[in-house]
Amino acid sequence: MDVLAAFAAKQGITYTLFSDQGSKLIRDLGLLNEHVYEHHAAYGIPKRDHHWGVPYPGVFLLDAEGRVTQKRFQQSYRERETGVAVLERGFGLASSAHGAPVRSQAQGIRVAARLDSPAYRAFQRLWLTVDIEIDTGLHVYGQPIADGLIPLTVEVTPAEGRSDGTPEFPRPKPHRLAGLDEAFYTYEGKIAVTQPLTFIVDAADAVVEVVVRYQACSDELGCLMPQTVTLQVPVQVQDHIDRPRQR
Amino acid sequence: MTTQLEFGIDFTAIGPAVGERFPDVVLPDQHGRHVDLHQVRNGRRALVVFHRSAGW
Q1: For chain A, which domains are there?
Q2: What tens digit of pLDDT does each residue of A163-203 get?
């Protein structure tokens, strides 16, 4: 409790912090992190007995009746999400705290890319959101796709010190052309592609390079040339609250 | 430094499940008062965070 009081005072926390002495609740709920020593070994950290008893890292979202609507847990005790991710991806609220969008455009589309936060701390999972707006009358191809067509892809260029998750695309819609039996899967209008990125060192400010490839087509005029749009999304490094950065 | 973040843990089977009422919790808070989670929610949505420690 003294530990909690000191922590709350130092961090300016006004919401309730529960003290789970002896990890009783954590054990009762089956949330005791049984992988903590295995993770120490994987990270090359000496086994520390006082680390036993910690929960798996994550959050439960409860509705007004107290039912669990979402569990958002991380595999590694080192990793965590941002408050923005919990608000936007969990509760479906709009946050004004995310990073500034970087915008670009090319034939038939406008693209904006942003991160949850303008700054990162090591092992914080940031979500990259790429908003793509396709001009009226045009479509781009999704997956599955027939040979010879170019699907929409969104790729982040791999970078040292960053671990990238898998991009999540919306489901494309079947698109039929008159006189053809085959349906194509396409996107029209506005879509958003998201991808988790975790910086695993916090040495310096960084840039996330996002590459969008696509071919825009219209039923009447056929396809335009394939295009590539590259965006550079800057992100600053942020000091940890309690300790200087690892360099 | 290793960078492993995925360990193959399946969280669907760990802890209270989606759709279940979150169990009753009554524990001391940072002021030493016993607090009932569902009472303090007061009919509102809530975020319950499991944090490794306030000490390290």
Answers
A1: 2-56 (no CATH), 102-237 (2.60.40.1250)
A2: 999 999 999 999 887 777 777 899 999 999 999 999 888 77
* Closest CB to A16 among B12, B29, B43: B29
In angstroms, what separates the C-alpha of B41 from chain A's closest C-alpha? Answer: 8
Contact A134, A142 (CB under 8 A): no
Per-residue DSSP letter, A74: -
The average pLDDT across A70-81 equals 86
Whether chain A has a CB inside 8 Å of the CB on B42: the answer is: no
Residue A218 makes CB contacts below 8 A (sequence gap 6+) with: A137, A138, A139
Structure confidence at residue B1 as a pLDDT band (50, 70, 90): very low
Closest among A151, A194, A153, A192 to A175, alpha carbons compared? A151
